[in-house]
From TrEMBL:
Lineage: Bacteria, Bacillati, Actinomycetota, Actinomycetes, Kitasatosporales
Residues of the Carbohydrate kinase PfkB domain: 187-284
Protein name from the UniProt record: PfkB family carbohydrate kinase
Annotated keywords: Kinase, Transferase
Coiled coil location: none
Species assigned in the record: Streptomyces cylindrosporus
PROSITE patterns assigned to the protein according to its UniProt record, in alphabetical order: PFKB_KINASES_2
Length: 301
């Protein structure tokens, strides 16, 4: 079967409003003056994974529900500008959106508008089967209706990855994603015992690789029953914003993994791209290029 798409990104399209605040947590006050402006731009987790993969030279297709609204127009325009194929299924509830509060040290607090989705949302089965059948790999965002598409993806024979983000290891919503993916990314942020959760994912699911990102501490890689610490990469410039760092990590890891690099090498790519993303303001949609990634990784070898 011809695989014309390297990575199909399923879900995670939307719009964020970025607000740079004096500090986090933000103390109560009647009002704050926001000197850097309040900006709305296209780009949530699926969008940024797609952008990162495309910047690394992979053929990417993005599938999600979008509203017929100004926010949906921003998402469509971003994909057109970056040359990324987009299949947008009409979403009567509107395009997903969020507000990200960003502190001076780059940390963020995200406020997600969950009114833009419904548990019964579905992707058309024919669309999923057709696109998955043409793809080498599918990366699934943990948004509705991607959960309902997981059995169809497994039937297609393609490999699957997902990012559980700040899963606490207990919320049952994340479990179908965790146990149906071949490559699982997650953050250590909410995990009291990251290794225990990582091993449970491999024991109960089908993952051959689990990666837990740990911010400035690097990442932890579990493969072949061995846990390895991946040292952090030095950011090439001052850290200004951590928005999108996990998405950049996932995109660079998948680039290495799909090119048959070792998991350790793929994780090295991830730390480099994640560090780079922390130096880019969230108001910009700039991903690390393949040339930059390979040059930096060569210096670290």
């Amino acid at each position: 079967m011809s695989r014309e798409i390297d990575v199909l990104v399923l879900g995670g399209a939307g719009v964020d409003t970025i607000v740079y605040v004096p500090r986090l947590p933000l103390p109560y006050a009647d009002s704050y003056m926001i000197e850097q402006g309040i900006r709305t731009r296209a780009g949530q987790t699926g969008d940024f994974v797609a952008l990162g993969l495309a910047a690394l030279g992979l053929r990417v297709h993005h599938l999600d529900l979008l509203g017929d609204d100004p926010e949906g127009d921003l998402v469509r325009a971003l994909h057109e500008e970056k040359g990324i194929a987009l299949t947008a299924i009409p979403q009567p509830a509107g395009t997903k959106r969020a507000v990200n509060l960003v502190g001076p040290d780059g940390r963020r607090l995200s406020l997600y508008d969950v009114s833009r989705s419904h548990p019964d949302d579905r992707f058309p089965e024919t669309t999923v089967r057709t696109l998955a059948g043409a793809s080498r790999h599918v990366h699934v965002a943990i948004t509705q209706p991607a959960a309902h598409a997981l059995p169809l993806l497994r039937e297609s024979g393609t490999t699957v990855s997902t990012d559980l983000h700040d899963w606490d290891g207990e919320n049952p919503y994340h479990e179908p994603f965790a146990y149906e993916a071949d490559v699982v990314f997650l953050s250590t942020t909410a995990l009291p015992n990251p290794e225990r959760t990582m091993r449970r994912i491999t024991e109960r699911g089908r993952a051959e690789v689990v990666v837990a990102t740990a911010g400035a501490k690097g990442a932890y890689l579990l493969t072949d029953d061995e846990l390895t610490h991946i040292p952090p990469a030095a950011p090439p410039a001052p850290v200004v914003d951590t928005n999108g760092a996990g998405d950049a990590f996932a995109a660079a890891f998948l680039y290495g993994w799909l090119n048959r690099e070792t998991p350790e090498r793929a994780a090295l790519y991830g730390t480099i791209a994640g560090a780079h993303a922390c130096t880019v303001p969230a108001t910009e949609a700039e991903s690390m290029s393949r040339e930059e990634l390979l040059a930096v990784s060569a210096r670290r070898s």
